[in-house]
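lol so apparently i was supposed to do this last week
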Amino acid sequence: HDFLVPPHTAPVPPEKSPPAVTPVCPLIPVPRHFDRREGVLPLAGTFLVVSEAGSLGDLALRYLGQAHPLSTSARDLSEVTPLRLLLQECPLEAYRLTVGPKEVTFSASDAAGFFYGAVSLVQLLASGTHLPCCVIEDAPRYRHRGFMLDCARHFHSVEEIRKLLDAMASYKLNRFHWHLTDDEAWRLEIGAYPALTDIGAWRGHDEVLEPQFGSGPGRYGGYYSRQAVRDIVAHAAALNITVIPEIDIPGHSRAAIRSLPELLAETEDRSSYCSVQYYRDNVLNPGLPGTYTFLDTVLAEVCALFPGPWVHMGADEVPEGVWLGSPACKALMVQAGYRTARQLQGHLLSYAQQRLARSGRTLIGWEEAAEGCKLEQSAIICAWTEPASTARVRALGYPVIACPAPHTYHDLAWSSAVTEPGLHWAGTADLETCYRFEPDESAGDLLGVQAQLWSELLGSADRLEYMLFPRLLASAETAWSPASRKDWPDFYARVKLHQPLLEQRRIAFRPLQPCAVS
Ligand code: TNX
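anyway here it is w/ TNX bound
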């Protein structure tokens, strides 16, 4: 797989760090307004909660309660710090947090706003026994602040995913895009098709899924049971995170095809193609009725398991040459008046879109889904190829999530040093490259920004965390903070403050490099 092989590189200059500054505000992402006031609030052992928020404060208090003891009554007022939750007109997800010399107050108008107030307060609590007096007024830049994890190429445990969800929430990310299927494996238990996980969830074990391994490294992998999915969805919901499952079709489907050959094979198909990752048998066939039965069955179970409003259907990287030698596809083309493979892909995706719409779900797709031009404009597109593609897809009329590979693919190597693990196909991405990404807003409203972690090379949790942190913090700041508040030297200094917090979370992050002045 040369896709996975790093290019030969010359010696790499030491990484640059920006000039040292002392940040005014320790928070990541940096809030819209932060006014440092005179004085400090000495923290008592317990917060005495006085709330007029009712159930809108539940998420916030549950989150806060894990960091600091809470109570709703006190015998001795000197032993508690009053914490007030006030309802106040303000935009969705926005909050105002006031740390006064005697008490903490936060106000918001929805559960998410109170939750993010609590998230900021928990970050401030990390500064020690005294909180700095301050007033914070904050609201997100984007509605969609995503993180995509590829659990297909390598299986990541439920425990690891919970840990990542916790980290996401503490940096105010709110959408977990869960890449569950790919060529290498199928990770989601589907009751109607046990073979999908009996066969498709295991790599390296035999000649069926991975003949290239020969006797191979031995069987490895795993899948998410329906109960595991429910646990993850519930854990995410408690952190104001919506889970977006991805079933990647029609390309990247080799594991499904090898697991269910009776549904998806057409022996007379003379098409010949090769995917970016060198697979020659990884694309579903839109000309076969079995493909639609498969989709109906899988999507019914997906909609039953995932309560969120979105389902991602992939649509990336369908190789050239596919379908054109398939009699079934030729028949469909004649019948529908199609002339290109793109139209066939559009046919399949719009079928999925209609199927999802009947269950009240909106389809999301990678950039290539926009190119068939068959989809209803409610479809949401993840623009991934390069920063300029965001505006291109917007111009086609679709709402867009900016996911440009050179800045938001955290599987890229940190640098071109031969010792750095990671992919190189879209360049390398140090913290500054990730941080300096600014989405192009000229083409209109953008739903948001998303970080991606593909996992071809992530065989362990340590490796995963090394690639992701602290780059995820850079993506989170771009997704939440207004462009005018972003400041690279200031961010760098705040990441320094956050390293001990990442350590406390037992995250195997890549430490900031102690190095030369720029
Ligand atoms: C491209 S981005 C892919 C993935 C790979 C990734 C590696 C996209 C929609 N497809 O299949 O894992 O590059 O960086």
